[in-house]
Structures are given as C-alpha cells and as structure tokens.
Amino acid sequence: MLKIEPRKNRSNFLEVSAPVIAVILTMIFGGFLFLSMGKNPFEAIKLIFWDPIMSPTFSEYSRPQLVIKAAPLILIALGLSFGFRANIWNIGAEGQYIMGALFSGSIGLALYPLDAWFIFPLMILGGIIGGIFWAMIPAILKIKFNTNEILVSLMLVYVAEQILALASVGFLRNPEGLGFPGSRDLSKYPSATNPELITNSGIHLGVICSFIAVVFLTYFLTYHRLGFQIKLIGQAPKAAKFSGVNVNYIVIFCLGLSGGLAGIAGMFELTGPAGLINIDFNVGYGFTAIIVAFLGRLHPIGILFAGLLMSLTYVGGELAQFMLSIPAAAIQVFQGMLLFFLLSTDLLVSYKISLNLGTNNSNSKSKSE
Amino acid sequence: MSDKGTILKIKDISKEYPSVKANDSVSLDLEYGKIQALLGENGAGKSTLVKIIYGLVKPDSGRMYLNDMEYRPKGPQDARSKGVGMVFQHFSLFDALSVFENIALGLDNILEKKELKKQIIDVSSEYGLSISLDKIVGNLSAGERQRIEIIRCLLLNPKIMIMDEPTSVLTPGEVSDLFLVLKKLSKSGMSILYISHKLEEIRTICTKATIMRRGRVVKNCDPQKISATKIAEEMVGTSFSSPKKSKIKKGKECLQINNLSFQPSDPFGIPIKNLNLKLHHGEIIGIGGVAGNGQEEFLSLLSGELKPSNGSLFFNDEDITKLNVVERRNKGLLSAPEERLGHAAVPAMSLTENCLITAEHRMKLSKRGLIDYRISKNLSDRIIKNLDVRTGGSDALARSLSGGNLQKFVIGRELIQNPKIFIVNQPTWGVDAAAASSIRQQILDLAKEGTGIIVISQDLDELLEISDVFCALVGGQLSCPEMTNELNPSRLGMLISNSIE
Q: Do the domain assignments include residue B362?
C-alpha cells in the first residue's frame, strides 16, 4: 500500500532545487513525447527553451515577445497569489483583465481626439477601477451571502466576455472602421498609447510596472501587517480569528488587489501590444496566471521567474509549432507536463511516499475465503 | 441467558506516551453476554485501552487473550476479522450517499448486492434497528446514523462490540432506543464494552463497571449496586491533597458575565445556556468538567472570537459585549486557548512571528502597519527566558517545540503583556509534570499581582490546587460557584457529572 507522509526534516536544498528538477523532468518526458511523434526531441527542446533567447535568427522577434507576454502574467499572478495564500480563490482574473481594458479604453476613446497629458494617467486609473469593480462582485457576495468566490468570479469571466463582444460591435466600435468589429487603434492616438520604451526590447510601461510591483509586494508581504495576516489566515484560520484578523476585510483586500492588478494588466495590454478593443482581445492571461502564481509558490520573486518561464514556453512553443510543425495540442501537453512536475516535486519536498507492504490485507483475505 | 465465562482477558497492559503514562498495567476481564462499562474522566486512559483492543495502538507491554487464545491484533481489520467490532463516537459516513451504499463501502469483504441487502435486513429486524436503505445519509438524524454504524459493525458477526461514548450525540428518545438494542444484543450472547462518563446511563444498562483513573484501574464494581456518588468519588479520586489555602485578598469585581448564551451554527457545536459569573481582581476561578461541554465555546465568547446570541459582558463596569478580539485585548482581557497548534500558535511560523498573533498591539510590535521584527524577536527572547522555554531560539518553528515548551511559550506570551483578566483553557494538558507545576506557579503569581483569572481544566487536582472558586461546566451550563476549600470529593464528582441540579 502506498502512503503519503509528511517529511520530518524538510531540506532547504530540495526546496530550492525542486523547480529545476521539474524543468529537467519536463524536458526528458517532453522529449519522449516529441520523439513518439517522429520529431527530433533535442531540436524541439532547444527551440522551446534556448532559441527564443539565444538564437540569432529568432531572438530578435522572440526576446521582446518574451517580456510582452510575461508582464501581464506576472502582474495578474502577483495579485492572485495574495488571495491564494489566504484561501481566497479568485479564478476570474480574466474577467477583471477584460473589464480593466474596457474601462480604460472607454475613457481613452471618449476623449478622442483630445490631446492632453492627463488622459493616460486617467486611463490607468480607469483600468484599476474596472478590475476592482469586477472583483468586488464576488467579494461582496461572499461576505454578505457566503457565496463561493470561485464560482462567482469564474462566471463573471463569461459575462465580461459578452460585454467585450458588445463593446467591440457596439458602443466602442470604430466609427471609421467600415462596420468591422473593433475599436479605434489606440496606438495611433498619442495621448492614449503605451509605446515600446526601448526599440526592439519589448519593454513598455506595463513591463516596468510589473517589475515595480514585484519589489513592492515582496516588501509588503514580509513587513506589512496585512501580509502577515494573509499568511495567518492561510496557515491557521483559527489562529487568525484568535489574533483578531478581520476576515471580511482580508477578502475585500485580496480580491481588490488581484482585480486591480488584473485591470492594470488589461489596460497596458490594450494600450500597448493589443492596440485596440476587439472580440478576441483576451487570450487567457488571467487563467494562465493562476498556474504562474502556483509555479512561483505564491511568492513575488518566484512569480517573476515563473512568469518568464511560462512566457518562454509560449514563445518557444509557437516557434516549435512553426519550425517543426508540432501540433499546438502537443505544446499544451508539454506545458501541462511542466505544471504536473512542478506540483509533484513540490509535494515531494514536504512529503514522502512510503511503500507499506502490510500483512493486514493478506490476513483478512485468507480469513474471508 | 448466556454462557458464563470470560471472552476477553486483558493482563497488565501498559502504554506510555512521551508526556504521560496512558495505561499502567491495566487488567480487565470482559464476560460473555454482558454490557460492561469502562468509566473515567477524560485522560484516564479509556481511549488508549480501547484503541489497543481494537488494534489501533500497540501496547508497550502486557498480553490479551480472546477465548483463551493469545490475541494480538495487527490493526483494526485484523481485530474485526477476529470478532472485535467498534462503533466510534464520531461517525465516518458519506453524507451524499445512501444508507445502503454507506454500509457496503464500510465492509472489508465484498458481497453480492442482493445477498448484502438480505443480510442487512436480517440483522436490522433481529435487533430492532429500523432503517430504510435508500435514504440519503445527509438527511438522517444522529440516532439513525449511529444505527448505520452499528449495523455495519454487526454484519461482521462480532463477539465483542466496543462503543465509545455512544450517547453523546443522541437525544433522550434515541438513547432509550439504543439501550433496547444493546440489551437485545447482550441477550444474544454478545459482549459489549461501553465507554462513558455518564453515571446514570451506566447504572441503567451495565452490570459491571471498570473505573479508571490516571491510567490505572482503580475499581471493578456492579454499578447497579453502588451509588452514583460512590462511583463519582472513585472517578475523581479520594486521595487528592487538600488545596493550599493562600489568603486571597479579593479585589474589586473585574469581569461580570450576565446571561451569556450562544447558539452554534454547526451541528457538533455546544450551545452555551444562560451563563452567569463574577470574577474579581486577584481571584482564580476554576471551571471543571469533561471536554466537549462548552469549554472551547466559553473561552471564545470571552476572548471575542464568538459573538453571543444573548447576554452581556462587563469589564470593570464597562460593557464590552460588542468589542472585538483586538479591542478586548487592548483593554487587558487576554486568553490562551486549549489547542496550541493551529489556534494559539501557527505550527509553520517561527516563535518571533507567533508573538505577533496576540502581542502586536499591546507590545507595539508594529508601527503604522509595518511590523518591526526586531522588537518581536526581542519579546520572544524574553518570553523564552522568563518561562525557561527549551527551544533552539526565537527562529525555531512553533511545531518544532515539544507540547510542554510550546504551552509555556503560549502562556508566557500573554503573561508578559500584564493582563488585567486572563482566561486559559487546559493550561497543562499534555505537559510534563515539571512544566505543569511551573505554569501553575506562574498563574498563581499573576493572581497575586491582582489579575482576575479563569482557568478551564479537566484536571480536577489542578483546579483544586490553584483555584479559589470552583464551577462545573456541563452541557453548556455552569453550576453555582462554590468555594474550592469547602468542596469534598463526592460533591465535586457530582458537580462534574451533573447529577445535582
């Protein structure tokens, strides 16, 4: 019989090396996957992990893509990680991301073609408010009626998607767009655009913002009372109650933080890489960020690396699809493997599996016969 | 009736845990077709003994004989196959499944559905355990759920059935139904080991009782032939030392509890009924009684973790009923709950971090929301030094400390904050003797400085040693306060088993 038991002594070395071991295991098993499909495993792994950063041919395109994709993942995952630590499960960051983009986009488009310095800051504010607004719905329902925030926040993603579609073909549609869905291109509206700051680096304000958020939230989590209370609720809810933590306040704070950060991410994506509001504006950053948050072990610094790694598998995965014609589904399996190995190595850091060939079973069997 | 003789013979069983000798050469004979009681306070060693019989715990020494054959169960499954069944106090049933599915899932052997149904119906009609097989367990009452557990146990044709506090979750009507079933079972030749601390019940159905105290068997008797008082005395122990009477100077009243009531939302919670109590400066009130009679709820109501459904609390003539945990703590009402890991302290956090749980505001461990870990570490170092906590230092995780040392730390954390009122539940539970006496001394010293203290404990010797006033908390109701030095053992025993109004 297999048994999972907690380890008595957790090794620090294992704790640090677990993610590295997981990546190596993913490479090995992913290699077999690609081999079984008749592809050269070494080339595929190299295309995914190495070429996007180092290859002279591809990196010129891939490197900027890496940070562009990583920035929203990191921003959203940072917010989610605080809630996850306190067992508050916001699964609807995708919806909050859309609402952030819609709010900020509406502000920018309403003021078009006014040229003023305050438009962009106002749009940032709009993004934050949009995200927070959408996150407050599950928060307040949870506090008032004890609803499950997982369900409510998730359902609200689909509502947000419908509003996005409505905006794209309705109230935000480009009046000069010949009736096609989609808003005006904000990248052509200087007061409301978020351009690349260094040419060909991919770095825009959103990227800078995500790095600042990593540093700030690391400090906040360690030193602020709320950071401590969030850890307290997650690790021992009874102790948190005994300490006098106001759980409702933490629910509002965690959902507000994750909503706000998702909203900002949506805002920067809209004004930067995406450029305009359209039906297909959201590509799943809000959901992928859940994985990123866990890969980063809910710690801001970990999330920074996890976001970059996740982004690498996307960019590299696309490259592998393109170069070796590996189907997209296989790349998703590969990403799934990465998550599986990360979570299982994580489990093995704090637990061990012991094989117990019990005599009890055989005994009772012989009796019953 | 049934054949005479011994079915299970237990000889000199001992089991020692790190901090306590749970069973100290316990011997017991269980007779054919008898309902035999195992009596004792919590911590007397009843559960350990029963777990040994059921194969859940291995004894350190001693032997058991089942039908004159050596009996050494390797585990519960082995015990069941040899004819020893057990019905636990808390049920292990799936709410979402039907009665039949629950019974089928719990069996060791897999049977044909039809065959099993027939067996269940046979067993339930034979012993009057009426139950409908297709009902969903989630909709059943506690009594019906217990019947499922009993049927599950009976299907294995046990010769011995162990019942752990079977009536603690039942209504009076369900209790008398259960007794009918038990009588039928014993008539058919089954031996039942019945664990309880409710004297009246035992006097109704048991013909033999074994009383345990502090890990030892103190008496075997026929409960129907001796008085409840006598049994209570044996449970509590007549040999306790008379408490040292420190002349207390009772100060002004510091805490007044008026008609405090609490209705729990979860079904296993204990309601608190109309509780009244007055605490004075420098006074120690001891609250006795068996755990699970509202002790935890009582402490949480005073600390502010639970909101009362009725009643009020006054602290130095100021109404604090509506104040939350932090506000009460800031006024000087501090508490230490029973459960060390997970309630009083967080296992995976360092002692420095654990200081923040209750001392953040009073000891100014944070400034404008930012925590100063140096001050917190400093405080933790002082607690470790003051109470002689044996640990690697303030960076050690709470779970790395032994029970006694963590208890010293948890209590020290409150003592260092100079409480005006201090409420503590089970201050020395699972703590070795040396640590226990040092904790008691700390509590006495605190009272000398004028703090009003409420000590909730199951250890009656402890309460008699340190408290000035004694009350028993039974079934969420508090008995009238009595001066500890006027109490005699039988009175005490009656109070905690609630045989006196």
A: no
Expressed as residue numbers, the domain containing B169 is: 6-236
Among A190, A173, A192, residue whose Cα is nearest residue A182: A173
Residue B488 identity: N
Asked whether the CA dihedral A223, A229, A234, A239 is positive or negative, the reply is: positive
Taking an 8 Å cut-off on Cβ atoms, the answer to whether A235 and B371 are in contact is no
pLDDT-derived band of residue B241, with 50, 70 and 90 as boundaries? very low
Structure-block tokens of residue B488:
């005699």
State which residues form the domain around A228. Answer: 70-302
Residue A222: inside a domain, yes or no? Answer: yes
Structural domain includes residue A12: no
Phi-psi region of B118 (alpha: psi -120 to 50; beta: other; left: phi over 0): alpha
* B440 within 8 A of B465, measured Cβ to Cβ: yes
Contact A47, A316 (CB under 8 A): yes
Contact B337 A242 (CB under 8 A): yes
pTM assigned to the model: 0.74
The answer to whether B436 and B463 have CB atoms below 8 angstroms apart is: no
Encode pLDDT of A313-328 as tens digits. 899 999 999 888 889 8
Q: B371, A225: Cβ pair inside 8 Å?
A: yes
Q: How many domains does chain B have?
A: 2
Q: In 3-state terms, what secondary structure has residue B413?
A: helix
| Cα angle for residues B38, B203, B45 (degrees, 5° grid) | 15
- Does residue A274 form part of some domain? yes
Of A223, A225, A239, which has the smallest distance from its Cβ to B345's Cβ? A239
Contacts of B226 (CB under 8 A, 6+ apart): none
Q: What are the chain A neighbours of B356 within 8 Å (beta carbons)?
A: 228, 243
